[in-house]
Hints:
By secondary structure, the chain is of the alpha+beta class. The protein folds into three domains: 87 residues, Butyryl-Coa Dehydrogenase, subunit A, domain 1 (Orthogonal Bundle); 116 residues, Beta Barrel (Butyryl-CoA Dehydrogenase, subunit A, domain 2); 137 residues, Up-down Bundle (Butyryl-CoA Dehydrogenase, subunit A, domain 3), CATH 1.20.140. It is built from twelve helices and nine strands. The strands form three sheets. A four-stranded antiparallel beta sheet has the order 2-3-7-6, with no helix packed on it. A three-stranded mixed beta sheet has the order 1-4-5. The chain has a two-stranded antiparallel sheet with strand order 8-9. Helix 1 runs parallel beside helix 4, helix 4 runs parallel beside helix 8 and helix 5 crosses helix 7. 34% of the residues are buried. The mean pLDDT is 88.
Amino acid sequence: MDLRHSDPDEEFRTELRAWLDINLPMEMRQPEFWRGKSDDERFEVRREWEAGKARAGFAGIVWPEEYGGRGGTATMKAIYDEEMAKANAPSSVNPLGLAFLAPTVMALGTEEQKREIIKPLLHCEVIWCQGFSEPGAGSDLAALSMKAEQHGDEYVLNGQKIWTTNAMQGDKIFTLARTSSPEGGKKHAGISMLLVDMHQPGISARPLKQMTGASEFGEVFYTDATVPVTEILGGEGNGWATAMLLLSFERGSSAISQYTEFHKQWEEVVELAQTLDRDGQPAAKDPVLRQKLAQSLVDLECLKYHSWHVLTQTSQGKDLGFEASMTKMMWSDTFRRVSDTYESVVGLGFQVPDPREDLSLTELSTLAMWSRSCTIWGGSQQVQRTVVAERVLGLPR
Length: 397
C-alpha cells in the first residue's frame, strides 16, 4: 500500500483548492445556506455550480479528454473526492449519469450515442435518472416486469419504477424493460436497456417523502410511453449484461470521500458530546459513551487504510472484482456506527425537529436517518457478506 501522492497529483490538489477558494463561496459551504430553499431551488443552485465546475475542467476527472474529461489518474479522482468533501461542496445533481451511464456509453454506445449523451451529461444540460427497481423487483432485479413492445420503429412502454433518484428533475432515464419473453425460464433473458425521454405525456413521476422530510426519490409510471428502437444501449436483449457492466463501474472506487465526510461527522458528534449536559457533567465524560466514540474512530481509521489499499490496487491496474463488496460493507457499516454514536449522545430526540433550526432536522439528525438506508441500497449487508464469503474467501455454500 502506497500512502504517497506524486508531484503531479499534489499539483492537481493545489490547483483544485485554489479554484474552490474562488468559486465556492463560504456561505454555500454552510448548512444555513440551503435551509428555507425548496427542493427545486436547491437543485438549480447545485446544477448551475456543477456546470461551472465542468467548464473549468474539474468534472470527469478520469474521463478521456476526447469526452470532455481531464484524463487524470485514479489518485487525482481520490484527491478530488477528498477536497470536495472537506470544502462541503454541493453534491452532484447528475450522480448516476456521471458514475454509471457515461462510462457505459463510452464502452458500448454507438458514435451517435457518445456524441449526444456524454458532453451534455457532463455539463448538466441533461439530467439522467436510473430506472431499475420496481415494486416487485428490488433485490431480485431480474424479476422486473415492465414491458416494452415494439410497434414499428418504436417501443411502447408500460409499467412502474420506484426509488428513482432525481425522478422529479430528470430529463431522461436509462431503464430496464422486457423487450421479449424470457426463454427457457431464464428470467435474465429478454431484457433491454432503453434511453427514454422523461418529458412526454406517457410518463409521470411522483415524489416519495423520506423520513428526513426530503423527497430525493420518486416513483415513475409508464403508460403507453414511447422510445425509438434505436435508443437501446448495448443491443436488444442484452440489458442484463449491460446493467452488470454499468454497475461494475462502482467497483474499484475508493471510499476516501466517505471517510472524509464521516470523520467530519464524528468530530461534530464529539463537539456536541462536550457541550451537552448529562447528570450534571458533559456527556463526553460518560465512560460508555467515550468507548463508543473511540470505537467509531477506530472504525474510521480502518476505513481510511482500506481505502488507500483499494486506491493503490486500482492505480496499479488491478481489478478488485468481488472484493469491492468489502468496501461497500465497510463504509456503510462505519457510517451507521458513527450515526449510532450520535444517537447515543442526544437520545431519541434526534428524530424530532429542533425549533431553533426553523423546524427542520439538524444536519447530524438527517445523516443519522440516512445512514439506515445505506446498509440496504447498492446491495444489502447480508448480500455483500454472502458475496465476500463465496467469491473472495471461497467458503462453501
